[in-house]
Design goal:
Elements lengths: L1 E5 L7 E2 L2 E2 L1 H18 L3 E5 L10 H16 L3 E5 L6 H5 L2 H4 L4 E4 L7 E7 L2 E8 L19 H11 L7 E6 L2 E3 L20 E3 L8 E4 L6 E3 L1 E6 L16 E7 L5 E7 L6 E6 L1 H4 L25 E6 L8 H6 L5 E6 L15 H6 L2 H13 L5 H18 L9
Parallel strand pairs: 1-4, 4-5, 5-6, 8-9, 9-12, 10-11, 12-14, 17-18, 18-19
Antiparallel strand pairs: 1-15, 2-3, 7-8, 13-14, 15-16
Helix pairs in contact: 1-2, 9-10
Length: about 400
């Protein structure tokens, strides 16, 4: 049996003020094209369908179009809610949609959802577990003490009627980790303080495949068959080096599984460039471009990528964002990396004894030198002196240095 593992669609998401909905439509077009050519039996979506609990109209329309095309292709769709979704909204009309082989399990009722599909090797049991937290299962497991996320998952799995001699797939949206191994995390994820939501992945080892959502970078957790599919779109610059994909799972007879990552191509990539503004904005003809411009910038389309630009100029730049966007219209972030931005102020603060011996003018002069790497000009020193004299005069001659 072949099925697609997707997660963290985050339909309707904006990144630094830019809507990602066109990118998301483009992802769905590629998935539909793959299904038409390769004919998988199912599509699994492991949570965070929408970016917010109350998605906007356009986001709902995009997902509706995607589900409609999947239904027309007669492929089974199984999806769960994630921590960004509203479980009740995602669960709406689930009984009606199940007649079209669209199985939506948004609200957890104390039991794993179960969908059974069959192939030449027998049944494959898909177990659906939407995002849950300890407070949401209060009263569901009377004989158990539920204090942590791990307690929740242990109770859910142990009370389910799972026959591990058959082929079983778990679909879940939780933060599973392996002890001693740091997962790849992204800025666009919600990260609870102290990793309180972390769950030991060892309790999942008996499943034939575990389709996880929540982390935005595709990765295994402990074992090859326990995997995060990752988000199909880059949602932060912490992900700019990642190659986005969907995971294709082929379950053959018990114990025989093949995994393939199918790349997803964006309309506009997300990447980072750095250099002096003159080099980055140099605009040459296609055949006369040099390596001074970012090496990935090979055509007009790449200039429309979503960019984080890091300027290394030492001199002050007037309207740097306007100048950069005249060449790269989709700049999302602009930062500076030079001698001024790299100064550690904690190392340049004079000690108290030195402060007492220096005048206000001398203190400011030292600060100016440390921050700018040069002394004040005669004109700048004159202006600073006049300002300090004016301030001290207005505050009275009895003002102490430490009062200013």
């Amino acid at each position: 049996m072949k099925f697609l593992h997707l997660s963290d669609l985050h339909i309707g998401k904006n990144v630094n003020g830019f809507s990602m909905m066109n990118e998301q439509r483009h992802v769905f077009e590629q998935i539909i094209k793959y299904i038409r050519s390769e004919h998988p039996e199912a599509v699994v979506i492991a949570g965070d369908v929408y970016d917010r609990a109350v998605p906007n109209i356009e986001a709902v329309r995009i997902f509706d179009d995607f589900l409609t095309e999947l239904a027309d292709l007669d492929v089974a769709v199984m999806l769960i809610s994630g921590n960004h979704d509203s479980p009740e909204r995602l669960n709406y009309a689930s009984r009606i949609l199940s007649g079209k082989k669209i199985f939506m399990y948004g609200t957890f009722n104390g039991n794993l959802g179960k969908i059974v599909l069959s192939d030449e090797y027998g049944d494959v049991n898909f177990w659906l577990l939407p995002f849950v937290k300890p407070s949401s299962v209060y009263g569901m497991f009377d004989d158990r003490e539920i204090e942590s996320y791990g307690d929740v998952l242990e109770a859910v799995i142990e009370t389910a009627d799972i026959d591990y001699t058959e082929r079983n797939v778990l679909v879940a949206h939780q933060f599973f980790t392996k002890t001693g191994v740091a997962p790849i995390r992204s800025e666009s994820e919600i990260n609870p303080v102290g990793g309180l939501d972390a769950i030991d992945c060892r309790m999942l080892e008996n499943f034939d495949y575990v389709a996880l959502g929540h982390l935005h970078g595709a990765q295994k957790v402990g074992a090859e068959h326990i995997r995060y599919a990752g988000s199909p779109v880059k949602y932060s610059f912490s992900e700019w080096r990642q190659e986005k994909s969907v995971t294709v799972v082929e379950l053959n007879e018990k114990g025989n599984i093949n995994l393939t990552a199918v790349p997803i191509q964006p309309i506009h990539d997300m990447r980072e460039i750095r250099g002096k503004i003159g080099e980055l904005t140099a605009f040459q003809s296609q055949e006369d471009k040099t390596d001074k411009i970012d090496k990935t910038d090979k055509d007009d389309r790449s200039r429309e990528d979503y960019l984080r630009v890091i300027l290394t100029d030492e001199d002050e730049i007037i309207d740097p964002m306007g100048k950069i966007r005249s060449v790269y219209p989709n700049v999302m972030s602009l930062d500076f990396e030079n001698s001024r931005s790299s100064i550690d102020l904690s190392e340049i603060i004079p000690d108290s004894e030195k402060i007492e011996k220096l005048s206000l003018y001398d203190l400011f002069s030292e600060f100016f030198l440390d921050v700018n790497g040069s002394v004040m000009s005669e004109e700048q020193g004159k202006i600073v002196g006049e300002i300090l004299d004016s301030v001290m005069g207005s505050m009275g001659s009895g003002t102490e240095k430490g009062d200013v």
